[in-house]
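Supplementary Text 2. Reproducibility record for the structural model of the 181-residue chain.

All settings were left at their defaults, and a single model was retained for analysis rather than an ensemble. We include the record here because the model underlies the residue-level annotations in Supplementary Table 4.
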Amino acid sequence: TKDFSLESEVARLKIHVRPVDIGAIFQEARTAVERLAALHHVTLSATLPSEAMTLSTDPVLAHQILVSALSYAIQEANGGDLAISFDVGHDLLTLTLDYMLKEMGDSKLAADAIIPKLAERLKWTIGLNDTPDGYRHVMLRMASSRTTVMVIDDNEGWVELLNRFLQGFDCLVVSTRGDSD
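Retained model, structure tokens:
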């Protein structure tokens, strides 16, 4: 019998990692949820950094995760302002959603069986923090999926060749000379 569990299906999912502009993907996700926000009387107030937010990840999964996180936050918000901010670090972006809850209780995002698994597949994590005054803070930490390749060889030609070969795959090629006995 074949295993059709959620974990096995997510594990079989092909990931197509490439450098993407998370800011552009976020704007597309924001556009996708604007009607839902209007229906729930929620205003999306986003503060985007001035620098580019490039990250090595799968753009399709990144878009789905962002749309889902925004949708759940809109549905849980008690109308009004949903504050969205980004913190840019080296190979890590953190998206934070802050909003007043309609009612205290479990997060729909945390209860979703698929989105946290997809985030985990991208090496992303989702954190939640509720405050006593009724606010929820959702933190989506988006790690880069860049692969580092170390080449140990005395032949500089191999390093250059490998660098050219891997150019479209968003790999970082690091070289060191091998010890020759």
